[in-house]
Design brief:
- The complex is a heterodimer of chains A (about 100) and B (about 120).
- Chain A contains three helices and no strands.
- Chain A is mostly helical.
- Chain A has one domain: Orthogonal Bundle (Helix Hairpins).
Chain lengths: ~100, ~120
């Protein structure tokens, strides 16, 4: 039965890494800043899942602490970048109306 | 039995992660992409961490996993709301059925609205 868990861990690692790569492609391509922020958000959540898989694979519970901190930092990054995009656009619009 | 349960949860989470990334890559505009990525990302991470909790099985790990999943469940809608508001206030161009011929758009629309009115 141990073989099934190892196999499913391999499949899970492959799927999560594939999703991170696809999100990275969107982050490079993304036409607007908001596309890139959404892709970054998804990458953070996928890497939290990766930390959970690593905790099982290497039998180290400390990876779960890494996952918790990563979720926190990822949320802060998303909120900060969203606020930045919004304020940036408002400022450029005000500049246009002043011209 | 524990291995089979945990392995199934992990495989299911991995498949959902790939589906979410596919939506992020293929959908036509920012809001639809956000719709695909935030919810499915939360679901896949929750499934994989649940598999992790099943493997370890001790109470401290379960508490940690529940804390992570609760945190993601709380913060994902807030982040998505902030991004959506910045999309609307910035005026990012949205998708307007480009690439679909005009006569097929009418065929795709429902005949009746949910309230029973005619559109």
């Amino acid at each position: 039965m141990d073989g099934f868990l190892d196999l499913s861990l391999e499949i899970g690692f492959m799927c999560v890494v594939l999703s991170v790569v696809m999100a990275f492609i969107r982050m490079v391509k993304g036409p607007s800043l908001q596309d890139r922020v959404v892709a970054l958000d998804f990458m953070t959540v996928a890497i939290v899942a990766f930390c959970g898989l690593a905790a099982v694979r290497y039998e180290t519970a400390a990876f779960l602490d890494v996952a918790l901190v990563l979720a926190l930092v990822g949320f802060l990054a998303t909120v900060a970048l969203a606020r930045f995009a919004e304020r940036n656009s408002v400022r450029s619009r005000e500049d246009h109306t002043n011209d | 039995m524990i291995d089979v349960t945990a392995g199934s949860l992990i495989i299911l989470g991995g498949i959902f992660a790939v589906i979410g990334a596919l939506g992020l890559l293929r959908m036509p505009d920012v809001l639809i992409r956000m719709h695909a990525s935030t919810k499915i990302g939360t679901l896949s991470t929750g499934l994989i961490l649940a598999g992790c909790a099943v493997v370890f099985g001790s109470s401290e790990i379960v508490i940690r996993v529940v804390a992570i999943v609760l945190f993601i469940l709380l913060t994902a809608p807030i982040g998505a709301h902030m991004i959506g508001r910045s999309v609307v206030s910035t005026g990012v161009p949205l998708w307007k059925n480009e690439g679909i011929p005009e006569d097929e758009v009418d065929k795709m629309l429902p005949d009746e609205l949910p309230g029973g009115e005619k559109p």
